């Protein structure tokens, strides 16, 4: 059922707030109830409801918002990915470290094609990394491939082989590399600003579905790419329909105007009562987290930051925001359980008001200290987490 790649990609994207301890999320997807015959069939279209706005630059080295990531993961293919700690090869068929772990040799699968029919080669991988490492291109991925102020060196060995040379050993490199989806050199070679390039308006990717049409504020339509390396998808097309908010998308789901959408935990019970939908709950593999702005003088105090962490009852926060611990749970690390090298054997910040008060006093913060917490108030779970965090 290769077509399942698309809805899975949709639902497995980011939920972000700003924390010290984090909540690991599970997402809930709702779709009209299926018939008893669950065998995959050829053909058909899937319409997915999107409430996070229009895509920004549909280009893998810039994609960071939920909508763009959702669409991009159907348009482009990764080098490889991890599922339950096991590698799943994408465009690549192997990645071999050197004996000293200072270099890695990546081998591409043969006979790969871009969606315009051009071959995918090592030149495309090298080009992608040269661009994301170029400060002038302003890709946020650049910092992930800088070590001690020095960039990873990426070179072509032959048409299907790329060598990565690291300035120093990095346990994070293999896990970081999964985030990179190569872009086509022949499309972007003459573009001075890749983020603002018009080439992003009709992208040429490597994924199971290719660009068909985009209408701002309405929809983004894809059609099947028959030469996809992993075999053509079952579906003929996938369309992402944009709704102004969650309530509008839920109404479209009930009216049969869309086939699938991510459901906020607060809406699950109401939609379940209609007996019209199937629900799938699965780990999102993301964190909701609070970030301290240390440009604010008060937040430069470690004791104050620790006091805030101890003052937040994370069980209450998760239950309030997600309605149940079935949908999320407090995290012990900035790494989710599906991440390489995850461990619960770390210092944890369990709810402890006495510690919070002692640390607040030790921080020297004034009694009338006021802090501002920013969150996305159009997201129900983020708004709930923001409100309970502010009141802690």
Describe the overall structure.
- With 392 residues, the protein is an alpha+beta fold.
- The protein has eleven helices and 16 strands.
- The longest helix is centred in the C-terminal third of the chain and has 12 residues, at 380-391.
- The chain is globular and about 65 Å long.
Write the SSE topology.
Elements lengths: L4 H7 L11 E10 L12 E6 L15 H10 L4 E4 L2 E4 L2 E6 L5 E6 L13 H11 L13 E2 L2 E2 L1 E6 L2 E5 L7 H5 L7 H4 L20 E7 L3 E6 L12 E6 L3 H9 L5 E4 L1 H8 L4 E12 L13 H10 L2 H9 L5 E3 L22 H11 L16 H12 L1
Parallel strand pairs: 2-13, 2-14
Antiparallel strand pairs: 1-14, 1-15, 1-16, 3-4, 5-6, 6-10, 7-8, 9-10, 11-12, 12-13
Helix pairs in contact: 1-2, 8-10, 9-11
Please summarize what this structure is.
With 392 residues, this protein is an alpha+beta fold.
């Amino acid at each position: 059922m290769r077509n399942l790649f698309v809805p899975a990609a949709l639902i497995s994207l980011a939920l972000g707030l700003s924390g010290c301890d984090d909540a690991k999320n599970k997402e809930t997807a709702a779709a009209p109830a299926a018939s008893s015959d669950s065998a995959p069939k050829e053909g058909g279209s899937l319409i997915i409801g999107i409430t996070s706005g229009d895509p920004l630059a549909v280009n893998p080295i810039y994609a960071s918002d939920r909508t763009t990531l959702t669409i991009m993961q159907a348009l482009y293919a990764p080098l490889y990915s991890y599922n339950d700690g096991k590698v799943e090869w994408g465009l690549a068929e192997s990645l071999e470290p050197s004996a000293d772990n200072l270099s890695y040799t990546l081998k591409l699968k043969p006979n790969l094609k871009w969606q315009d029919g051009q071959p995918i080669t090592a030149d495309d991988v090298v080009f992608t990394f040269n661009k994301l490492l170029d400060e002038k291109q302003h890709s946020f991925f650049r910092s992930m491939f800088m070590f001690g102020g020095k960039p990873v060196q990426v070179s072509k060995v032959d048409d299907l082989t790329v060598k990565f040379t690291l300035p120093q050993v990095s346990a994070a490199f293999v896990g970081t590399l999964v985030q990179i989806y190569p872009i086509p050199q022949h499309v972007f070679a003459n573009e001075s600003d890749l983020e603002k390039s018009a080439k992003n308006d009709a992208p040429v990717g490597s994924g199971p579905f290719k660009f068909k049409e985009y209408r701002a504020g309405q929809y983004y339509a894809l059609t099947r790419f028959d030469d996809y390396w992993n075999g053509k998808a079952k579906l003929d097309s996938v369309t992402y329909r944009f709704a102004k908010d969650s309530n509008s998308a839920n109404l479209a789901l009930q009216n049969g105007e869309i086939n699938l959408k991510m459901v906020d935990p607060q809406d699950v019970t109401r939609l379940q009562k209609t007996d019209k939908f199937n629900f799938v709950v699965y780990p999102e593999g993301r964190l909701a987290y609070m970030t301290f702005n240390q440009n604010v003088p008060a937040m430069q105090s470690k004791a104050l930051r620790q006091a805030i962490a101890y003052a937040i009852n994370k069980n209450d926060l998760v239950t309030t925001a997600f309605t149940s611990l079935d949908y999320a749970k407090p995290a012990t690390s900035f790494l989710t359980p599906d991440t390489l090298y995850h461990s619960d054997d770390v210092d944890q910040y369990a709810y402890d008001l006495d510690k919070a008060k002692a640390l607040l006093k030790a921080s020297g913060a004034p009694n009338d200290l006021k802090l501002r917490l920013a969150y996305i108030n159009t997201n129900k779970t983020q708004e709930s987490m923001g409100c309970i965090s502010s009141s802690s």
